[in-house]
Specification:
By secondary structure, the protein is α/β, with parallel strands linked by helices. 31% of the residues lie in helices and 24% in strands. The chain has helices at 3-6, 26-35, 80-84, 99-103, 105-115, 142-152, 167-179, 185-192; strands at residues 12-19, 48-57, 61-70, 89-95, 124-130, 155-158, 205-209. A seven-stranded mixed β-sheet has the order 6-5-4-1-3-2-7, with helices on both faces. Helix 6 (142-152) links the parallel strand 5 and strand 6 (155-158). Helix 7 (167-179) runs antiparallel to helix 8 (185-192). The termini are far apart. The structure holds guanosine-5'-triphosphate. Keywords: Acetylation, Cell membrane, Cell projection, Cytoplasm, Cytoskeleton, GTP-binding, Hydrolase, Lipoprotein, Magnesium, Membrane, Metal-binding, Methylation, Nucleotide-binding, Nucleus, Phosphoprotein, Prenylation. One of its GO terms (cellular component) is plasma membrane.
Length: 216
């Protein structure tokens, strides 16, 4: 066998876009996932931020996730279409303690449909209820969340960027769904625990760049 035949095949690359109202926790989810950090201080995303993280799915499949953290203020802006375009996965993020952030997902989803109206393939869409550490302040009923998922064929996720609860699992499930890979129960349970104290040496995390685009 020649050297080239022995070389590993290149990583799969997936583009995932985080959409939703300002303060729903998109940047916090991206940084929790890609950097295993959390900041209490709110700093509005202007335009978009961009993160990369490499994960390994069952079957030793290395996947590099490009996470596009799109600022909540971009809704209605002329760049939003371009940010969404080409994403294989969309995470519609809301804050479970903020009804308005849930109601406004309809507008975000419309923007996704518009950006993809000429595409042959449609992105996989996931509904992500964030801030489950604040369960006692929940104002968006789980029923409502589930109904929205069923009506639109979204996958369903509840996470906390603050504690890390289910954040890795959320990204892992979405990547696996896009690639048609089934995760078994053990794999899902392993990823569900808060990632605050776990070390995952097999994953390398590269924070690439922060693009701050004018006009929003
Ligand atoms: N308690 C709690 N607070 C959170 C969580 N996720 C985010 N926050 C807080 O919510 C605020 C907003 O979080 P961001 O991640 O900046 O929100 P965003 O959706 O990126 O906001 P934009 O940049 O305006 O689009 C910050 O003060 C975070 O610390 C969470 O899971 N639990």
């Amino acid at each position: 066998m020649s050297d080239s035949e022995e070389e590993e095949s290149p990583d799969r690359q997936l583009k995932l876009a985080l959409l939703g109202d300002g303060t729903s926790g998109k940047t916090s989810l991206a940084t929790r996932f890609a950097q295993e950090t959390f900041g209490k201080q709110y700093k509005q995303t202007v335009g978009l931020d961009f993160f990369l993280k490499r994960i390994t799915l069952p079957g030793n499949l290395n996947v590099t996730l490009q996470v596009w953290d799109i600022g909540g203020q971009t809704i209605g802006g002329k760049m939003l279409d371009k940010y969404i375009y080409g994403a294989q996965g969309i995470l519609l993020v809301y804050d479970i303690t903020n009804c308005q952030s849930f109601e406004n997902l309809e507008d975000w989803y419309n923007a996704v449909k518009k950006a993809n109206e000429d595409s042959e393939t449609q992105p996989l869409v996931a509904l992500v209820g964030n801030k489950i550490d604040l369960e006692h302040m929940r104002t968006v009923k789980v029923d409502k969340h589930q109904r929205f998922c069923q009506e639109n064929n979204f996958s369903s996720h509840f996470v906390s960027a603050k504690t890390g609860d289910s954040v890795f699992l959320c990204f892992q499930r979405i990547a696996a769904d896009i690639l048609g890979i089934k995760l078994n129960k053990a794999e899902m349970e392993q990823s569900q625990v808060p990632i605050l104290n776990s070390s995952r040496p097999e994953e390398s995390c590269v924070w690439l760049a922060i693009l701050q685009l004018p006009g929003f």
